[in-house]
Amino acid sequence: MDRTALLAALARTDSVRDARRLFSLLGYVPDDLPGDDATCLVARWEGFEVIASYSATPHDAARSLARKLATASRRALALACGPAELAIAAPRIGAPGITPLLIVPRAEPPALALQLLGELAPRRGHNGLAHALRVAELLSTERAGERFFRLFRAALERMAAFLPRQGGATDRRTAALIALTRVLFLYFVQAKGWLDGRPDYLRSLLDDALARRRDFHRDVLHPLFFGTLNRPPAERSRRLHLGRIPYLNGGLFEPHPVERRLGAVRFSNDLWRETFDGVFERFRFCVREADEVTAVAPDMLGRVFERVMDDGERHATGTFYTPESVVRQMVDAALETALAGTCGLDPDAAHRVVTGGVTQRAEARAARSALRRLRVLDPAAGSGAFLLGALERLTGIRAALEPPRDAAARCRLRRDILRNNLFGVDLSPIAVRLAELRLWLALVADDPTEDIAAVTPLPNLDGILRQGDTLFDPVSAARALGTPATRVPRDVAGTVAEARGAMYQACGPERTRLARKLYAAERDLAERLIAHARNAAERESCELIALASGRDLFGVRSGLSPPQRQRYRRLRRHRAELRRAQRALRDGTVPFFSFDVHFPDLARSGFAIVLGNPPWVRAERLPPATRRALAARFRWWRAPPSAGYGHLPDISVAFLERSLELARPGGAVALLLPSKLASSGYGETARAQLVREATVTYLHRVPDRQANAFGATTYPLAVVVKKDAPRPDHRVKLGFDGAERIRQRGLQAPGAWMLVPDRTRDAMHRFLEAGTPLARIAPPSLGVKTGADRLFVGTRRASNGPTALVGLDGGEHEIETSLLRPALHGRDVKPFRAASTQVVIWAYQNDAPLDRLPPKAAAYFAARAARLSRRADHTGGPLWTLFRLRAGLAGH
Q1: Domain check: are 423 and 512 in the same one?
Q2: pLDDT at 537 over 90
Q3: Counting beta carbons within 10 angstroms of the beta carbon of residue 143, is it exposed (0 to 12), middle (13 to 18) or buried (19 or more)?
Q4: Amino acid 800: pLDDT
Q5: Is the domain of 682 the same as that of 813?
Q6: In this structure, is residue 48 part of a structural domain?
Q7: Are residues 481 and 370 in the same domain?
Q8: Does one domain contain both 625 and 739?
């Protein structure tokens, strides 16, 4: 179906008569039989009818007409033409009721709505009944949303559980996800029309395999993945008869290291049939990402990534989905800041370039040059939301400054930007795989090619998207430790960069050769840097040992001062890490990710933009070894000593410091950080250093309506800074609209940032100085800690004299009422009132735990003795001991 012709016909369909022309274009036979004034037959095909009416309220009219057709058992489509849109519904065939409505705006219809309208066209070989069944199925396709994510995750769990137990749980889960994402990717490619030109290509392969009792995974998917999609047509086996399939290159369609470790990974026909029927065939797929999506679109892959992780993994890694609207705002703010900081544009001109305003010739020329050289890094790329956002915005801005000749030229521009301007790193291999998928799909969506044989192979992204740890590597650790660091020679950095660039578009054996060349260059560079770092660390260690062995005038050993002893211990740990790295390098692998090794050309100059949504993980959730490493590596992560129960720094503080290290002078850093960074004690060092060392351009509190889309209880603060010392008169924009600005020097005062206009902040300071702070009169304290809320805190279900039935530990238990007290959570406290909905077992008297318990409670705790004794804070005393009792024992 010609999209342009369909759009034109749709725009003209503002009456029932015009509907005849629209459905004639779709392949129906127009009908001029007379009908009543409101409703008439406009088209037919093989006994299937299109009944249309005009209404100012087309939604209601289409539903009413479809119900009448269903009551009359007619094979028909109900169409209601309205002032601005068409509403379409149909009777269900073989089931009661009608299908959901398809709403098609006549002006600028969503991509999916237009796709569904085009697919209402009759198919060759169908009769009226088959067409009626297909129309009902099309219109009944489940709308994408939470249900897709739940079904996808359930399929993943089933497939991971199916695999033999020879590998670890993580490898089995990754292998299942790889298989699912390959098929998911192909559903998008199928929606593009590139799989033999058939919209049901994948389903037909499965049906054929089931009918012939063939192993679908071994006999169909394996040859499709590894013998067809990753090979040019001339190199494919002549025994394969899979139709016209494009050559999409390797990467996604090469065996993954996890698959090599596990051996033959194969899922049963029953599993694949269940997955196709229960997930893929229940939804529509659309290759274009949009704000209002009524199908599974590539932008949903970020949410898929979040939902394939269990709650514990999400909290441990601090990984949450970032809404597209927030991504766009941050990308634009970062681009404005970087253009003003690195190419000589003033902030107003940079704003005009980014927003598409009128620019002067010199400004446009400077912006074009700067945008070609711009290097963007996401240090915690996740599923690629920020990289994709940067790709979209850079494409749009450069296309506005240098309009492409045609759609093919625009597609080449996107590939050029992806090759030269975007880089990402993430610790999770699953995240890296999904980021690759989204970027590949962004290229597929914009590719205008219709001839399957002429499809340009997808690029190799493993040189620009790397799995690794942004925060820790032995090379940057040596630099942070203060040992003399070697600078990567320009020619060596150029060799790595050249190999990385050449591999981007390489195919077949050439790709394998260039990959070996790239990995060899990276390994040689790593060996050089690690050897230099180890030599420097050993020299300094020897100097400290000599200093400790020296004697003063009286023959007494000098020893080391406390700072020197601490320095020696850090050097010893660092030398051990370097030795481990050298051993792994001798085995032929680079066992770590390092910007100096993998992006040495970029590490020399720095990135123009570093942006993203780094993990938010409180220090309490990190292993002790990680906390020690963060404190040793990052200055800002070392929170100042404070009284009370203040939290240790969040790991996002380390990402903020690392991002500034990676940015070039004048470059931009744009990160989503916890709002608590602006007020908490743990953020004081970071706040003080940030306003001293960098120019803060934006501080934007993400409003609730956007924060709700994160899918978690988050309070994000978007921080955008320029890596340049601030001018004395610099003013920070509060919010991306820039309506309010505050003096940056006003943020240098100790304590929390007050992100309000200057006059308001000055008035608040005067107010605070006029009296005694409430914190001194009634200092807040954290509540009672049980160490096992599930065992102590529950809901009173019923009372029976001296005992009560309480919901605890997943069941109902009788507990003596003398031990039950109201349990008040912070969320229960409202203005001037507090409503408690739960109770806590409070086995205390006179500020001390009871020696003995009444029988019901005693039996309850005895049955859970092992779990109670394993609580981290329980170091002795009765099993019912609680901790942090100040709030519970306070007199009020």
Answers
A1: no
A2: no
A3: middle
A4: 85
A5: no
A6: yes
A7: no
A8: yes
Domain assignment present for 216: yes
DSSP letter assigned to residue 468? S
User: How big is the chain, counted in residues?
Assistant: 892
Distance (Å, whole) CA 297 – CA 305: 14
Give the domain range for residue 621: 324-472+600-747
What is the H or E stretch that residue 391 is in? helix 385-401
Query: What burial letters (b/e) apply to 486-501, b meaning 16+ CB within 10 Å?
Result: bebeeebbebbbebbb
Look up residue 25 and give its two tokens. 């274009």
- Let me know if residue 769 belongs to a domain: no
| Tokens read off for 303 | 């949410």
The CA distance from 361 to 347, in Å, is 16
Tokens for 612, please give them: 């993203």
What residues form DSSP beta bridges with 50? 43, 77
CA distance 651 to 564: 28
Q: For residue 96, what is the DSSP state? A: S
Q: Give yes or no for a contact between 111 and 290, defined as CB atoms under 8 angstroms apart.
A: yes
State yes or no: pLDDT of 289 exceeds 70: no
One DSSP character per residue, 610-630 reads: EEE-----BGGGS-HHHHHHH
Unique residue bearing structure tokens 């370039």: 353
pLDDT of residue 294: 57
Percent of the chain with pLDDT over 90: 43
Backbone Cα Rg of the chain: 32
- Write the single-letter amino acid at 74: R
Asked if the model's pLDDT at residue 580 lies above 90, the reply is no
Residues 468 and 478 in one domain: no
- At residue 626, φ and ψ (nearest 5 deg) are -65, -40
- 339 close to 320: Cβ distance less than 8 angstroms: no
DSSP 719-741: EEEESSPPPTT-EEEESTT--EE
Domain shared by 304 and 214, yes or no: yes
DSSP class of 712: S
Better pLDDT: 640 or 270: 270
**Which pLDDT tens digit goes with each residue over 323-342?**
777 899 999 999 999 999 77
Q: Where are the beta strands (DSSP E) in 68-115?
A: 76-81, 85-89, 102-105
Stronger pLDDT, 548 or 843, i.e. the higher one: 843
Q: Residue 43: pLDDT above 60?
A: yes
Q: Rounded to an integer, what is the distance from CA 341 to the centroid of its chain?
A: 28
- How many folded domains does the chain comprise? 5
Are residues 22 and 168 both part of a single domain? no
* pLDDT, tens only, 555-574: 778 788 888 888 888 888 88
124-153 pLDDT, tens digit each: 888 999 899 989 888 876 556 667 888 898
Give the model's pLDDT for residue 668: 96
Beta bridge partners of 557: 551
For 891, other C-beta atoms within 10 Å of its C-beta total 3
Indicate the residue among 574, 591, 608 that finishes a domain. 591
Largest CA-CA distance found in the chain, in angstroms, rounded: 121
Report the mean per-residue pLDDT for the chain.
86
Question: Quick one: pLDDT at residue 588?
Answer: 72
The reply to whether 774 falls in a domain is no
For 278, counting Cβ atoms within 10 Å of its Cβ (0-12 exposed, 13-18 middle, 19+ buried), the class is middle
The string of pLDDT tens digits covering residues 478-529 is 877 776 666 788 888 888 888 898 889 888 788 888 888 888 888 888 888 8
pLDDT at 662 (0 to 100): 95
- Which tokens in the block code for residue 882? 């609680």
Judge whether residue 644 has pLDDT over 70: no
Is 48 found in the same domain as 67?
Answer: yes
- Out of 547, 572, 591, pick the residue that ends a domain: 591
Q: Which residues of 639-655 are buried (b: 16+ CB within 10 A; e: fewer)?
A: beeeeeeeebbbbbbbb
Reported pTM: 0.75
User: Per-residue pLDDT for 690 more than 90?
Assistant: yes
Residue 639 sits in a domain of what CATH number? 3.40.50.150
Q: Is 347 exposed, middle or buried (0-12, 13-18, 19+ CB in 10 A)?
A: middle
